[in-house]
Design brief:
alpha/beta; Rossmann fold; Pantoate--beta-alanine Ligase, Chain: A,domain 2; 10 helices; 19% strand; globular; binds pantoate
């Protein structure tokens, strides 16, 4: 596995592979890799000849009171996971390569971020689209893989790629779960064993909502209240529970009934960790 800390070298290596007629699959990450990331690497390997993983804790997607400084980092452990997963190039750019001094250009999707996490984390998706656009410009992969746990991020990045006419195919990877159903996340590290157990309520709430819909429940208010109750009863603090259209992300009003495609998402705090998860309720 090539480890590259320099943007020009990473760009040159990927360009070389492409000249040789090889396709390149890309998995952008912020590191502290877990089995969810490893499954995205496996997916990239199935979709392309060479796999590139980037690790970059992107300052512009963190709010002033968020965990940028304390975001978990483990470069050695990450490199060994990438190596075992058969990654060809691990790209570890310094901040100054991605945000050269004086940089003042941002990439912003205007509509999809006006929902869900975008409302609670102003500027977050602008940071995500900016860094991913920069990485796409640098590496020009054929395919990029993003996890479905960050459902809104996936939709925003699909939209950005399409709107900016980038010739990159976005492939969603399924959410990988720990035993009991907790969606894998680097932020699960912040949970004590007790909080980790309590946080199982997130996936339980989503699963119960889907089963209720399958059994005929179609009132958004009932489903939303039940999800919030499940999380609060377990000791969590709900940031939001939402039911929305899976493509536009427009939320259903509490008075609405589900009569079309519907997706549910939850953000909740367990101890210091803000965790998110989502599930399709109705096709
Ligand atoms: O999902 C993440 O880890 C990040 O938001 C991403 C896509 C790597 C951009 O920094």
């Amino acid at each position: 596995m090539i480890i590259c800390r320099n943007s020009s070298e990473a760009r040159a290596q990927v360009a070389q592979w492409k000249r040789e007629g090889l396709t390149v699959g890309f998995v952008p990450t912020m590191g502290f890799l877990h089995a969810g990331h490893v499954s995205l690497m496996g997916l990239a390997a199935r979709e392309a000849d060479k796999v590139v993983v980037s690790i970059f804790v992107n300052p512009t997607q963190f709010g002033p009171n968020e965990d940028y400084a304390s975001y978990p980092r483990d470069e050695e452990g990450d490199a060994s996971k990438c190596r075992s997963a058969g990654v060809d190039l691990l790209f570890l750019p310094p901040v100054a390569d991605i945000y050269p001094e004086g940089a003042e250009t941002f990439v912003e999707c205007t509509n999809l971020p006006e929902h869900l996490c975008g409302l609670r984390r102003p500027g977050h998706f602008r940071g995500v689209t900016t860094v991913v656009a920069k990485l796409f410009c640098l590496l020009a992969p054929d395919v990029a893989v993003f996890g479905s746990k960050d459902y809104q991020q996936l939709k925003v990045l699909e939209k950005m790629t399409r709107d900016l006419l980038m010739p990159i195919r976005i492939v969603p990877g399924p959410t990988v779960r720990e035993e009991g159903g907790l969606a894998m996340s680097s932020r699960n590290k912040y949970l004590s064993p007790e909080q980790r157990h309590q946080a199982l309520a997130i996936s339980r709430a989503l699963g119960e909502a889907r089963r209720a819909v399958e059994a005929g429940e179609n009132h958004a208010a009932t489903l939303l209240a039940a999800m919030a109750r499940t999380i609060e009863t377990a000791g969590g603090r709900v940031d939001y529970v939402n039911i929305f259209h899976p493509e536009t992300l427009e939320d259903l009003d509490v008075l609405d009934v589900l009569d079309g495609p519907a997706h549910a998402a939850v953000a909740a705090f367990f101890g210091p960790a803000r965790l998110i998860d989502n599930l399709r309720l109705r096709e």
